[in-house]
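Quality-control log, excerpt.
Job 1 of 2 completed; input and output follow.
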Amino acid sequence: QVKVVESGGGLVQPGGSLMLSCKAADVTFSVHGMGWYRQAPGKPRELVALMARGSLPTYGESVKGRFTISRGDAENTINLQMNSLKPEDTAVYYCNVHAHPAWPDMNYWGKGTLVTVSE
């Protein structure tokens, strides 16, 4: 079973920075994409940033220019550098890893890491 683990969440003041990391272990398929999504209380889960094979990184509109997704040093790891954080960035951030869309069942999520932006 694929294990997806996020780390790096916490409390940060507005205007501050934070970096999240994600590692997918025991992956037995060809990874097509890895990305970050977030869900704030009472809101649906939304795309934050996505890296997919053969495509440029994709960002949610609200984080463009502030967040950067990158590959980690180890296989099947990604990072999310978050700068100029705002209170509205407060959410649980989830990492996702998936195969090509032709295999929709190969789609795995971590349990999430909480980011709180507050004074």
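Job 2 of 2 completed; input and output follow.
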Amino acid sequence: VRFVESGGGSVQPGGSLRLSCVASGFNLGYAVSWYRQAPGKDEEQVSCISGTGLNTYYADSIKGRFTVSRDRAATTTYLQMNSVRPEDTAIYYCATDRTFNCPLTEYDDRGQGTQVTVSS
């Protein structure tokens, strides 16, 4: 399984970013989650989407601001981040536990991640 994330960068509070995660080498019906890790904080599963796109999950911390989606082929998972806040600063990475359900209880495979920095 291989995940490659992109789209991170620096953005001002209130701005937007779109993260992408390209997956290969696994059953594209599996659920994929976006996690984030900030310095000194616990890892957080922020969003999840099933292979069909019909089942999604959002953490309370980002609900109403972020939207997860997958392309038709289910190879690429996106995280649209709107109204970002300084507390959204973290490394964002995608992962799977090789099941079809959201949210993930743990993961078996993850990508290297992409850095998101929110500051003025």
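Post-run check on job 2. The mean pLDDT is 95.
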